[in-house]
Design goal:
- This protein is an alpha/beta fold.
- The protein has two domains: about 140 residues, 3-Layer(aba) Sandwich (Rossmann fold), CATH 3.40.50; about 100 residues, OB fold (Dihydrolipoamide Acetyltransferase, E2P).
- The chain has seven helices and 15 strands.
- The strands form four sheets. The chain has a five-stranded parallel sheet with strand order 2-1-3-4-5, with helices on both faces.
- β13 and β14 form a beta hairpin.
- The longest helix is centred in the middle third of the chain and has 20 residues.
- The radius of gyration is 20 Å and the shape is elongated.
- The model has no long low-confidence stretch (mean pLDDT about 85).
Amino acid sequence: MEAPRAILADDERLMREQLRARLAEVWPELVVAGEAKNGQEAVELVQELRPDLAFLDIRMPGLTGVEAARAIGNACHVVFVTAYGEFAIEAFEQGAVDYVLKPAETARLQVTVQRLKQRLQAPPPDLHGLLDELTRKLETVAAGQRSQPYLQWIQATVGQQLRLIPTGEILFFVSDEKYTRVQTEAYEALIRVPIRELVEQLDPQQFWQIHRSTIVNVRAVSGIVRDFRGRQLVTFKNHAEKLEVSRSFTHLFRQM
């Protein structure tokens, strides 16, 4: 039996690399035959390569993942890739299609792979009804995002004072069980907002989560070093502290 073949479509190169690496871990026999940077390229790759699977990012320039899936039709099985956890679970648990949450985590991806192996034994389903529903949900999500811009200020406690700190001045956030430390070049402050909530409210182009308890401002990062144990550590331009990058997020700094 021939090895299954797939294409990956995401406008973020790092996300494609991370998904490819995770798939290699949990499904080593899967062949990633091609990668696309947008929905139109994904459709063309499916037509050219005839893969068994297409992993499509929901939000891509040109054609969205949903629009690309509509164009692909039943040419192959579709797996949607999304950053919207609750949205994905609600929309995709109907069973006709599977999903991967960003960033792809090994445990969740293993579940997806098991489902996909079963689905590959049958022809791709008709997704017409599901795609209509996804389109409506995406429009709702997009409208919600426009009404909720990314955080521009953080209200935090500095000593006995309450300050408004511009997010652009923040180097990183580090959380413990009770507080989250907000570090700037000049001082540190404390807030009670957990990392999992902060990461959804900050601009993902500027703030990257590098550990379950850490978010860094990439504009303040000077580079990556390794310690004697081989761990990646983030260094900052105007701050001496170094922060560990967990294995789940090392892909973000592969090109540094």
